[in-house]
Design a protein that fits this description.
Globin-like, Serine Threonine Protein Phosphatase 5, Tetratricopeptide repeat, 3 domains, 17 helices
Length: 316
């Protein structure tokens, strides 16, 4: 990691993209686990939501992703790692790096990135942070006016994958939810709220979700009675993950009856860790649902939650 991030710090483009205070031990833990080593990274439950969602707030161009890959390869070569192993690593890593791209090389100027405590943010990313608060508080006119200036933000995902619609649904803001749906916001786009992600700090603090939730599940979780039927009207429905998180045993049993394999289905919104319905049940503190999943054959050996690990022990 030192070789990689020394190269990043010396590169005119990447030093603008990466935060100056980046802790190198964090990516070291990630790559230790990614390459099959000890679970140093996902022992922190808030990181189970997926790598892409953790990178949403930051401006990542295809050119920057390409440079990062090049520096990663150079760092491995500098350690004398065999060419065959380097090729295997790079073949796998390329799709991950390019999957993080969220800015167009032609239209985006990295020199305009603004430093923040979390990293270097674009004007749009900073505006999205502000709009997340407004959507959660139901400030319809302010959201509408801001989207006139930054129309792309209706589709953008802030920290941990949260969209404006996700926050409006979580906050129970029916008018904002309806407006955003009419403007084309995706009602299925998942987000999460880890403990550390109660940010911006001006938002009310809520328990962490740990796992990705749809806007519909977030609304049900917060008991937003007016938002729930509105989202249903536009096609929102429960799945095995939402039923597990919310403790809906009837819904789970119906889904599993139709598709027994759903017991061990992997949540596609979590792109790094293997997150299954059992993760969702434990994250939602739905102990009866977790117990039922285990009785149906859910694998408990691969499930390690941080803030809820004692609950799993008690179930076993």
């Amino acid at each position: 990691m030192n070789g990689l991030y020394d190269r990043i710090a010396a590169d005119p483009l990447l030093k603008l993209v990466f935060p100056k205070n980046l802790r190198r031990e964090e990516p070291a833990r990630f790559f230790t686990e990614w390459m099959g080593g000890e679970r140093l990274y996902t022992n922190d439950g808030w990181k189970w939501e997926g790598m892409q969602s953790l990178h949403f707030p930051f401006a990542i161009m295809e050119k920057a992703a390409g440079l990062w890959l090049s520096f990663f390869k150079q760092s491995m070569e500098g350690l004398g790692i065999k060419k065959k192993l380097i090729k295997e690593v790079m073949d796998s890593l390329a799709s991950i790096a390019l999957g993080m791209v969220n800015e167009d090389d032609e239209s985006f100027d990295p020199a305009k990135l603004i430093p923040s405590c979390a990293g270097n943010l674009s004007d749009e990313a900073r505006e999205l942070v502000r709009l997340i608060v407004l959507a959660n508080r139901g400030k319809l006119e302010e959201v509408r006016n801001a989207l006139d200036l930054f129309p792309n933000l209706i589709h953008k995902r802030a920290a941990h994958g949260r969209t404006l619609l996700w926050e409006a649904a979580r906050g129970g803001r029916t008018e904002v939810v309806e407006f955003l749906i009419h403007e084309g916001s995706d009602i299925h786009m998942p987000g999460s709220l880890p403990y550390q992600a109660n940010f911006p700090f001006s938002l009310p603090r809520f328990p962490e979700t740990l796992v990705p939730l749809s806007p519909y599940t977030a609304a049900r979780w917060m008991k937003r009675k007016k938002v729930i039927p509105l989202l249903e009207e536009y096609g929102a429905r429960d799945d095995i993950f939402s039923c597990a998180f919310l403790g809906d045993l009837t819904g789970m049993k119906s889904i599993v009856s139709d598709n027994p394999a759903s017991i061990s289905e992997h949540d596609m919104a979590a792109d790094f860790s293997s997150v299954t319905p059992l993760h969702h049940a434990i994250a939602g503190e739905q102990f009866e649902a977790a117990d039922w999943l285990i009785q149906q054959g859910a694998d408990i050996q691969s499930h390690r939650m941080v803030s809820h690990s004692l609950v799993l022990v008690s179930l076993v």
